[in-house]
Design a protein that fits this description.
This protein is an all-beta fold and about 130 residues long. It contains no helices and 11 strands.
């Protein structure tokens, strides 16, 4: 089991940047594929980005590709999300999530890494507010 704690959220003007961090407990961080999701006001939680266990593969939602970058440091048990050129529509609670399912043969081909059910552990979230 892994526990996840997000940090780095806050209030920023449109066009600004933030870097979110997600600290994971335990010694097996590198065995989890990781993702970022967000939930805007009145919206369902949606996929933002995913990174493979070794960090050699990344995936993004179309709405953030080219502006956001997901990365991880397995030695520090930490996941990151660098967010640039922020827009008001990026406002929401950002969650990090860990998956033990990524070794399944169909995990990526079926797009499970972009879904809520493709993850097994979730953090409590950190608020990001982008003002116009």
């Amino acid at each position: 089991q892994v526990q996840l704690v997000e940090s780095g959220g806050g209030l920023v003007q449109a066009g600004g940047s933030l870097r979110l961090s997600c600290a994971a407990s335990g010694r097996t961080f590198g065995s989890y594929a990781m993702g970022w999701f967000r939930q805007g006001p009145g919206k369902e939680r949606e996929f933002v980005a995913h990174i493979t266990r070794g960090g050699d593969g990344t995936y993004y939602a179309d709405s953030v590709r080219g502006r956001f970058a997901i990365s991880r440091d397995n030695a520090k048990n930490t996941l990151y999300l660098q967010m640039n050129s922020l827009k008001p529509e990026d406002t929401g609670v950002y969650y990090c999530a860990a998956s033990i399912q990524s070794t399944l043969s169909f995990y990526y081909t079926r797009g499970n890494h972009r879904t809520n059910y493709g993850y097994d552990y979730w953090g409590q979230g950190t608020q990001v507010t982008v003002s116009s």
